[in-house]
Every structure is written in C-alpha cells, then in structure tokens.
Amino acid sequence: ANESNLGRYRTQAKGGPGKGIFQIETSDFNDIWDNYLKYHKDLAQKVMELNGGVEGTSNDLINNDRYSIAMARIDYLRCKGNLPSAQDLDAIWAYYKQWYNTPEGAAVESIFKFKYNTYVLGEIDGDH
C-alpha cells in the first residue's frame, strides 16, 4: 500500500529504480537471487514457477504481482527478527522502516499509517 499506492505505480515516478507493487530496486532483486535464493534451491524453484519457470529480471516485477509479492516476502525473510503482528501498526511501521525502506529511506510514518488505514483497512476520515 505504501510503496505503490496499492498498485497504482508500477514503475517509480521521476525515473526512480523501484519496480512493481513493492517498488523493488534492481540491485535488491539481484541481491535476493545472488545471495539468498541461490542457496535455497527449493524456494527458488517455487518463486520461478510464479514467473513462467524463469528467474527473469527485475522488469518482470512491473506486471507480475505474484512474483513481486514472493520477492518482497523473501526480502523480509532475510531480515532479523520476526514479522510484527498484523494488528500492531506501530510495530509494522517500525519493521518496515528498519528493514524495507531503511532508516535513510524517504517513507514518512504519518503517510505510511494513512495509506495503511485507507488502502488496507478501508477507512475514510476515520470511518470503516
């Protein structure tokens, strides 16, 4: 919801490097394949099945949401600690900011939470 406004942006505005609904950069895509999936063959095979049986390139993330979801989940799989509870938005934000967007990233907590409440929970002006 935060990275692409729930899929509205498939490539980053202003020519940025992010691709797909999770705005995964090519360098991160390659790192997942080179430094994780290369050593987890069974998982790699399952991920490739989501992309026509091939590893492909980061460009495949633009229009292949299932592949993009798998790659984002694997990116989180490599992070320290457990995923936070789905009911704890503060913890979700903190984990996302630390491990996905990074402390140096541009994500803003108030915008992240607004998008979560709007896109994920369907709240408009605090209503359900």
List keywords for this structure.
128 residues, 2 strands, 45% helix
Q: TL;DR of this structure?
A:
With 128 residues, the chain is mainly alpha-helical.
Q: What is the overall silhouette?
A: globular
Strand order of the largest sheet: 1-2
Name the assembly state.
single chain
Q: Report the major sheet.
A: 2 strands, antiparallel
Number of helices: 5
User: In angstroms, what separates the terminal alpha carbons?
Assistant: 17 Å
* SSE pattern, N- to C-terminal: EEHHHHH
The tally of strands reads: 2
Fraction of residues in helix: 40-55%
Structural class: mainly alpha
Q: Mean pLDDT score, rounded?
A: 91
Which residue ranges are poorly predicted, with pLDDT under 50 across at least 5 consecutive positions? none
Radius of gyration: 15 Å
Give the helix/strand layout.
Elements: E1 18-19, E2 24-25, H1 26-35, H2 41-49, H3 65-77, H4 89-101, H5 109-120
Antiparallel strand pairs: 1-2
Could you explain how this protein is built, in words?
There is one protein chain. The chain has 128 residues and is mainly α. It is 45% helix and 3% strand. The protein has a two-stranded antiparallel ribbon with strand order 1-2. The two termini are 17 Å apart. The model has no long low-confidence stretch (mean pLDDT 91).
